[in-house]
Design brief:
Mean pLDDT: 82
Strand order of the largest sheet: 1-7-6
Keywords: Coiled coil, Iron, Metal-binding
Protein name: Oidioi.mRNA.OKI2018_I69.chr1.g1646.t1.cds
Largest sheet: 3 strands, antiparallel
Number of strands: 7
Number of helices: 19
Family: Belongs to the cytochrome P450 family.
Organism: Oikopleura dioica (Tunicate)
Helix content: 40-55%
Cofactor: heme
Number of domains: 2
Shape: globular
Low-confidence stretches: 403-412
Bound molecules: protoporphyrin IX containing FE
Length: about 425
């Protein structure tokens, strides 16, 4: 893991770019708190606390919901145009790569992290989206070429021409440059205006208070951008595919949304929609395994399996989801996530964001995005498809996923092979 970040730092040094930090912070952010990277561990704990505090602020939730609702016309126009008014089946994900992260104005993720309007800076927006996507692809779908580079001793690496270095290094360096510039802008703005309008402003204040340093703030924003981009886009795509494949479910959710004229403000205002989002996570997980940054904290035996303190483990999130509820696991049935009062029901085995000290710090924001963007789409479009197979057993389940080579687009997340949906405008029916 250290190699991944160290390579970006070495690349910048080779180009003569200023870089005071070593990879400690980023490694700490991405690895278990129990390792012996003291500075990284401290910063990882601190940044997670700050992200959670900010996400839990109810006063900010309405701002994000407003930001998403502000995308309604954009989402409507995009799907009508790309899907030729309901005549063409399209892959919805590219729209979300723009909306989940960006959109023309009030991007939710960037609004949360950066707090500035990128409408007048389309080049910056394009760069953040492109480099963020390249970051997660390189991180999760690491290939031999990158591994050899990461683990080769630095004194050998310095003789290798920069043109032969893996492409993602260049992109991650570009991303860092952009973040450095944005942080400087936010800092200048904060000097005139004391309020903490974004996570960057929060971190900037922490830098002043000595709780983190400048580079910790930069690396943390880098992590959030790469982790919060494709995950939301792919989850949205999968949810829409599941809606297109399961017409009755789709209709029931639409009816529930209509009851309040699509005015639901919070997740609890439409448990049926939230249940379907969780059923979609269960039925076709976005992230099928936790990160490998968890260690056993004391010797433990579970059934006949013995784990020793310090063992590295990762959870099979996808496999666990086959143990949620009593119903057939191969059946898409969002009712399993509703209790007898019709409220959302949780399960220990349903952990799309995993659990514990390294669980996903972006989950509140992600759920808000999934809920409100889906609501807008179901309001304006009936989703259909002719090309998707429904699976009834494990083998069929595996067959509908890409299972391809690392070079396949999107291989790093378990993606459905058939992913096109027809967006039929409801007003035109
Ligand atoms: C539907 C969307 C998302 C899903 C399914 C998802 C899922 C996950 C999962 C399973 C992990 C690993 C947790 C573990 O191993 O314990 C994770 C980690 C992480 N996620 Fe998310 N995530 C999503 C969206 C986001 C967003 C929007 C952000 C940023 C705002 C984000 C930031 C992160 C970060 C920084 C980590 C690493 C945490 C650490 O190692 O301490 N994620 N996510």
């Amino acid at each position: 893991m250290k190699g991944w970040f160290q390579l970006i730092i070495d690349y910048r040094e080779r180009l003569g770019l200023k870089h005071e930090a070593d990879a400690a912070t980023s490694v700490g952010i991405m690895r278990d708190f129990d390792n012996n990277n003291e500075h990284g561990t401290k910063i990882a704990k601190h940044y997670r606390k700050r992200v959670t505090e900010r996400m839990n602020k109810k006063s900010l939730e309405s701002e994000w919901v407003e930001a998403i609702n502000g995308q309604e016309d954009f989402i409507l126009d995009e799907f009508r145009r790309r899907g030729k008014e309901g005549k063409l089946a399209i892959d919805p994900a590219p729209v979300f790569w723009e909306t989940a992260l960006g959109e023309s104005s009030k991007m939710v993720m960037f609004k949360f992290a950066i707090g500035i309007d990128l409408r007048e800076k389309p080049k910056r927006l394009e760069k953040l989206i492109r480099c963020g996507k390249a970051g997660i692809e390189a991180f999760d779908g690491i290939d031999q070429h990158s591994l050899i580079f990461e683990w080769m001793p630095k004194f050998i690496r310095k003789f290798i021409p920069i043109s032969l270095w893996p492409d993602y290094i260049k992109e991650q360096s570009e991303l860092l440059d952009e973040i450095i510039e944005i942080v400087a802008e936010v800092k200048a703005e904060n000097e005139q205006n004391e309020n903490e309008s974004s996570l960057i402003s929060v971190f900037e204040n922490d830098v002043k208070l000595g709780k983190m340093n400048h580079w910790d703030a930069i690396w943390t924003i880098h992590q959030l951008i790469i982790a919060g981009n494709d995950t939301v886009a792919i989850s949205l795509r999968t949810f829409l595919i599941n809606m297109a494949k399961h017409q009755e479910e789709q209709e029931r959710i639409r009816n529930a949304l209509k009851e309040r004229n699509y005015g639901q403000k919070e997740l609890k205002d439409c448990p049926r929609l939230f249940a379907a989002i969780y059923e979609s996570f269960r039925y076709s997980p976005t992230v099928s395994e936790s990160t490998p940054f968890h260690t056993i904290t004391e010797d433990t035996t579970i059934r006949d399996m013995k784990f020793k303190k310090g063992d590295l483990i990762r959870s099979a999130i996808g496999a666990m989801s086959f143990h949620v509820g009593k119903e057939d696991p191969f059946k898409f049935a969002s009712d399993r996530f509703l209790d007898e009062n019709g409220d959302f029901r949780k399960y220990d085995a349903s952990v799309p964001y995993h659990v514990g000290r390294r669980d996903c710090p972006g989950q509140i924001l992600a759920n808000i995005q999934l809920f409100h963007i889906s609501k807008i789409i179901l309001k304006h479009f009936r989703l259909t498809t002719s090309e998707m197979s429904v699976f009834q057993n494990l083998q069929e389940f595996e067959n509908i996923y890409s299972g391809g080579k690392f070079t396949d687009a999107d291989h790093y997340l378990p993606n459905l092979k058939e992913n096109r949906v027809v967006f039929v405008p409801i007003s035109d029916e």
